[in-house]
Amino acid sequence: MKGGSLRDLLSRYKVPLIAAKILLSFALFAYVVAKVSPGDIWDTIRPADERYLLAAAGLFLLSNLIGSWIWARLLRAQGVPIPYRKAASYYFVGLFFNNFLPSNIGGDITRISDAAKHADHVSPVFSATVMDRLVGVLAMALVAVLASFAAIDRIHLYAIYMAIVITFVVSLGLFFSIFNRSVLKAFEWPFRVIGARTIERGIRRLMDDLHGYKHQGKVLQLVFAASLIVQVSRVLVHYLVGLALGVRVAVGYYFLFVPALAALVSLPISLNGLGIREGAGVVLFHMAGMTKEQAFTVPFLTYLISVFISLVGGLIFVSRTPRRALKGILEKRRTARAAAAAGGRARKGIN
């Protein structure tokens, strides 16, 4: 199949696939809510301690500020030196679109588009975003592996432990593959086989940029350490939400189950993990001693907090048009003044 035919096929089924994803998400969510009981869920949320919820929101905000710094640092390593303030604004706009677009990668596309304005090519921005995601997955998997060692004697969920170990090994293998250009060529091969030459050239450039991180060892160590802080923070956000609801479950369960939930939510089978998150949360956290209502509410309320924080990105996005319009007006006024001043000097010269 040629590259054009592949693109046509994907374009033809894009809308039906998105519609199916949305329907599946709401169907799963409705099913889980019906099983738990809407009234019981509300009774669980109503007495929540606002102080813990505010602390959870603040910690989630901080984790995203650190996440935006990680992305900015990886961009700088690729020769795209975006000021942190701008990188953070692009990051939060991407976070907003991740929550409000049906695609799991809509936010990444948005921030890549914004950051690409500061680069000669989109490839280094794309590679920095891919590396950002890869380091995040690796850090999350490492946290889960460490939690698994601590819990394996008490919770015999060997399938989950196996999945966590596989995720860690695969992400670690992908991470170290950037140091070997011959290994990276394997990612170009499928597109060469199907004749998608344009895509193949784009993948080759991306692999070249990723391979460039081979000489950025200190940067990678720094961003990995920061990514560990981000992942631990997001686990603790769930823990704070649990405390707000009066849940008294050992924090170790959160370090085991939250990464598993994050992995499930990242699968492109539902709308931002809706229904998947809540259903898996009921199964997992119920085993830790939570009631079904609490097991549903902890991940769902955490998701609502993430949506609330992402509205910062929405405000930034909405404010762009007025700011750009004002900038254009001021630029026209400066141009008009400069032209008037030049005209005045010319008339004086003639006189």
Descriptive report:
By secondary structure, the chain is mainly α. The protein has one domain (3-350). It contains 14 helices and no strands. The protein has helices at 3-36, 38-45, 50-77, 84-100, 106-115, 123-151, 158-177, 181-184, 189-193, 197-211, 217-244, 251-265, 276-287, 292-350. It starts with a helix and ends with a helix.
| Overall SS class | mainly alpha
Order of helices and strands: HHHHHHHHHHHHHH
Number of alpha- plus pi-helical segments: 14
- Work out the helicity level: over 70%
Q: How can the largest sheet be summarized?
A: none
> How many distinct beta strands?
0
Tally of distinct domains? 1
What's the Cα radius of gyration?
Answer: 24 Å
Name the poorly predicted regions.
none
Shape: globular
Q: Tell me the distance between the termini.
A: 75 Å
Strand content: under 5%
The overall pLDDT, averaged over residues, is 83
Which terms would index this structure?
14 helices; single chain; globular; 351 residues; mainly alpha; 0% strand
Summarize the topology.
Blueprint: H1 3-36, H2 38-45, H3 50-77, H4 84-100, H5 106-115, H6 123-151, H7 158-177, H8 181-184, H9 189-193, H10 197-211, H11 217-244, H12 251-265, H13 276-287, H14 292-350
Helix pairs in contact: 1-13, 2-14, 3-4, 3-6, 3-11, 3-14, 4-5, 4-14, 6-7, 6-10, 6-11, 6-12, 11-12, 11-14, 12-13, 13-14
Summarize the entry for a quick read:
With 351 residues, the protein is mainly alpha-helical. The chain has 14 helices and no strands.
